[in-house]
């Protein structure tokens, strides 16, 4: 029997629920009230994307990805899991890619109707990231300063960014830039499943909805002749 057959997902999560959720709470408490600023930036980026100002939306997202990569993964998550160092570099590179697109405007979509499938999916996903994660604070038994927030914690940052990317980008670049957020959300869902957090299926649902939005936006427009 292959040696790898004896491994389970639990074997790759070297920390307990108390340790992980305390890390999330400490992240918020350490940087309070920065999350009030990042939350406002998230709503502004969403509105800009809907108004066809995708380059400005990406410009707001870029430094937040770099910040989470350094402050969360490199400086904190690495103490729990050695892969944090590599994840941190991935998030920094994602921030650099967002900045490059913001400066060049390459593959940025124009203003589109909010009633298209991809746009509606993007808005819903972004709102889940902006509003849904802070509401987990009472469930985790932490104060609002310890709540997971966009721009400070990886899960809501990845979710909100995924929603905005579905609105602001098009073409192969959209698929490429959505890859890391969807990979992290899937990894986080598996982690939360092992830690027995009841909201882990929501993260998998977000990834599934994102694939639907990506395929929907990839379909050519069919206009009546």
Task: Explain this structure.
By secondary structure, the chain is mostly helical. The protein has one domain (15-217). It is built from nine helices and no strands. The chain has helices at residues 17-31, 34-50, 54-74, 84-104, 117-132, 137-140, 154-168, 171-194, 200-218. Helix 5 packs antiparallel against helix 9 (200-218), helix 7 runs antiparallel to helix 8 (171-194) and helix 7 packs parallel to helix 9. The longest helix is centred in the last third of the chain and has 24 residues, at 171-194. The protein is globular, with a radius of gyration of 18 Å. The model has no long low-confidence stretch (mean pLDDT 88).
Alpha-beta content class = mainly alpha
**Discrete helix count:** 9
Rg, alpha carbons: 18 Å
Determine the fraction of residues in helical runs and give it as a percent range: 55-70%
Instruction: Show unreliable segments.
Output: none
First and last CA, distance:
61 Å
* Principal-axes shape call: globular
Q: Mean of residue pLDDT?
A: 88
Order of helices and strands: HHHHHHHHH
Number of E-type strands: 0
Largest sheet: none
Task: Tell me briefly what this model is.
The protein is mainly alpha-helical. Helices cover 68% and strands 0% of the residues.
What is this structure's SSE topology?
Layout: H1 17-31, H2 34-50, H3 54-74, H4 84-104, H5 117-132, H6 137-140, H7 154-168, H8 171-194, H9 200-218
Helix pairs in contact: 2-3, 2-5, 2-7, 3-4, 3-7, 5-7, 5-9, 7-8, 7-9, 8-9
